[in-house]
Structures are given as C-alpha cells and as structure tokens.
Amino acid sequence: MDSSGVSPGLLHIKLLTLVLMLCFSLLCGFSPVCVLRRATRFSSDPGSRQRALSLASCLACGVFLASCLLELLPDYLNHMRDTFSRLHITLHFPLAEFILAMGFLLVLVVEQMLLAFREQTCEASLEKQALMDGEDRSRTVEDGRCHLGLRVFLLLFCVCVRAFLEGLSVGSRHERLLEECVTLLLYEGLLAFSLAVCLTHHALRRTLLSGALLLFSLACPAGIGIGMGLDGTESGAQEHLVRCAVEGLTAGIFLNISLLGSLRQESGSPRHRIHKVAFLLTGFALVTAVLFCKV
Prior knowledge:
The chain has 295 residues and is an all-alpha fold.
C-alpha cells in the first residue's frame, strides 16, 4: 500500500475509470450528434429526421425519468437519513421532502419571473403599435425559447452535479470498486447520450452543444480525482449536510424537468404516440438494467 493506505490495484482501477469515463462519455455524447447531422445531410425528407429526433428524445426522457425516480431520489433520501442518524438527530418535520419540493418549485418560480420580466419589457413597444398576427407569433416563439433555454441550462446543471457527486463517491470507495466503476461507466454513457439528444432536439448551437457535452464528460472524472485526493480524510457533519441539500435541490429540479418539461413536450404531440411510449419505456428499462448491476 502507498502512504495514503490505498492499494496500488485500487488506485490503478480508479485512474483507469477516470480516463475511460472521459472517453466513453465523449463518445456516447457526440455519436448521436454526428449521426443526426449526417442523416440530415443525406436525407431528402425533413420529416423523417424530425420523427427520428422525436423518438430519440422520448428515449432520453425515459432515461432521465428513471434516473430521477430510481437512482437520484433513493440515494438522496438514504444519504439524508444516514446523515441525521450519525448526528443523532430525530426530525419531526419532513426536511428531506421539503428540500426536494423547494427544488421542484424553484424551476416554476424562476420560469414565471423570467416570463413576467419579458412581458413587462415588451409592454412599452406593444402599446405603441398595433399587433400583427406575425408579430404576436414571433413573441410567442421568443418566450418559448427563453422557457426552453432555462430548462436546458437546469438540465445540464443537474446532470453535471450528479455526475460529480457520483465520481466523488467512487474516488473515495474501497469496496466493490470494480462493479461500481462498470455500473457508473454504463450509467454515465446513457446520460451522455440522452443529454446529447435533448440538446440536439432543442436546436442548440454547435459550440454550446459541444461545450455542454464536454462539461458533462469532465464532471465525473473531476469528482473521481477529487475523491482520490480526499481519500483518508474524514468529512464533517457540515459537509454531509451541504451535500444532502445539494442532492435534494438537484433531485427536485431534475424531477420538474423530467415530468413537466421533456415528458410533457413529447406526449403533447399527436403523432406516433405508441412509438413514443415504446421508446420512453425502453429508456426507462435501460437505466433499470444498469442499476441491477449494483445489486
């Protein structure tokens, strides 16, 4: 063993996981982007590309929904329960659920504030001239872009925070490390693919899309590296409470985006409903199969 008490075998596994995580996340993230762009270039039917993108987006919705309900929420509630158990604190108030609800409501409040601010700034110009149908429609499109832009930013924030915290846990882990690393590798690959599909579906610019995928791909390796550096140091109660609060807010935001954002948007379209449900369930099943590896 080295001076930090970590065997060379475990250290090599963590370093290999760090490198593989970065490469595999980049591969899974940029692959659907390249495939969809090539399909657009060689396809003569624009409707086929939109149909394929919509079905892929439903697959991503299933991945995000399963990630939130089966992985993010249970881990957050377990961490919160363990933290207060170590501190010998008995709560008579549902604090964990309250933090989760605050994250859920935060998205709603910020969205409405942004829309209200945009409406107030447009009132002066709208009062000076009569509204045409085209102008009213363009205003609706701008509001929709503002609305979607906020959700895309929050989605990227949630998946990056979650990937960083997962990497932090793996970096400080000593038992069942190989199984945990394989599970995390598959799980982060699914999230990278789903994030790329979601960003492509929202027509994000190429530079922003590449930067978002690179940021997500670096989040988990960064967490593994910091976890390896902090291995052997005892975390205090404040650190555990801060992590639980961040996990709760992230879970609430992620739940809002999964249920009220992408899922509602895709289910609102009347076309290919059965196919969309099938792809959503496929994404849900893929995350479920990956989580079975932890058992």
